[in-house]
Amino acid sequence: MNRKEQLRKISITEQFDLCIIGGGATGAGIALDASLRGLKVLLIDKYDFAGQTTSKSTKLIHGGVRYLEQAVKKLDWEQYKMVQKSLHERDTLIKNAPHLTRPLALLTPCYTWIEGIYLTIGLKLYEWIAGNHGIGASKWLSRKEALKTIPELKKENLTSAVLYYDGQLDDARYCLAILQKAETLGATILNYAEAIRFEKDNLGKLTELHFKDTLNGETFTVQSKVFINATGPFADHVRKMANPKLKPRMKVSRGAHIVLPASLMKNETAILVPKTDDGRVLFIIPWQDHLLVGTTDEEDKLSENPDLEQYEIPYLLSYVNRYLEKEVSPSEITSGFAGQRPLLGKAEKSSDTKSLVRDHEVEIDKNSQLVSIMGGKWTTYRLMAKDTIDQIYEHLWQQEPVTCTSDHQLLHGAEDYRFEDWEKLSAQYQVSPAIAQHLMKKYGVFAEKVLKLTDNQPELKALIHPNHPFIKAEIVYVIQEEMAMTSKDILDRRLGLALRDAKVAKDSEEMVESYLVQFSR
Description:
The protein has 521 residues and is α+β, with helices and mostly antiparallel strands.
């Protein structure tokens, strides 16, 4: 994707069928679904793609064990349906981008036999709901088997454990892969484009959008048949911009994470803490040669740049030290981040964000005809997109929806992907197995395109830092091919180095800035 080319496409397009505001997972999913149905699509984002909620998740593709428990205890059909949909979508997400996903084994330590029986029954039900879309069988492990699976587990009072499977994804790059696929199908995709105001016809229906290029201040006007608000936690802002009379619908839940060295838990199995002292679910997850610990879940004030708060560090570390034998200190934290999730609910009814269902709703404003997709979660992004487009066909265009085909659409980098090809790349380009494997997992079949940049510039094979497998050719590639416009775009989302090691990322900023000057086009 080339940003100048995207701006050119905007300038020559008289009218789009859909203009999507928001370049996270939901907006990206809508852009792909609509493009597959033959619609003319524009997507804009105020900052970078996946810059907010989408890239600050716990990196899991899951049905929601907590929601299943609530569904059973409260006989809540809505909770049950959400788990069922999520488990079916989990399989689809993994199949559509195998280079960016993997099945993940999760172990829950048990400290009483009753707890072991309770969790085994619950996770067998979880597995049964998944049906043909299951990715691994759950089982009850003895104490010995649990310690063999995760030797670093705290042994005191441990009686057994339950093992089950969910999925893991590289969230920022998965979102980018959706957008890249949409763009190859004809969609126009633009980051750093802030929606400023709408124009309306005599009946109050939206007809045009003015947006500003936040990199240079230039303004543009686009016409579209339909405008879609896919801004996640910020949905109320766009709703008010379209119709000031609309009442707020969104609540925000805060999720904080810390990142630790992988040496603290040397295996590929995660730990699920099913219930913290204050009723949350927490994970300790092997993730990209590190350990990811999170998440918190509490009501928060909406912010474009939520930071990890100091009080959250001891909270998360306390659970690491409760479940691992070796004491972990704050000095061992390599990075941390916080994100905000969009929850659909009315603040006056409940102040407990843990109790709100993470399902979604498509709202079509009767006056402006703005379409807002609100709520939801990463795992169901594709269903959210499908529901949004279907509603537009049925309620705005009074037509039978064109069939959705996104459920079996391989994403950018997934076509003909074989992880084993890393061996060929390693031999052909004389890079280490660690580098070749890393590139396959980040770029899929386009890993070779990254390495081709080193043919005439062998210095680009050099590591950005000796402790990490990233090479300098990746910086050039994401600038030229993936619309990375700033050092944060590169270090936080395209590469993800900042989420693994904040200090190394900070030390690399000057070099990345020089590459941006040299290779931007």
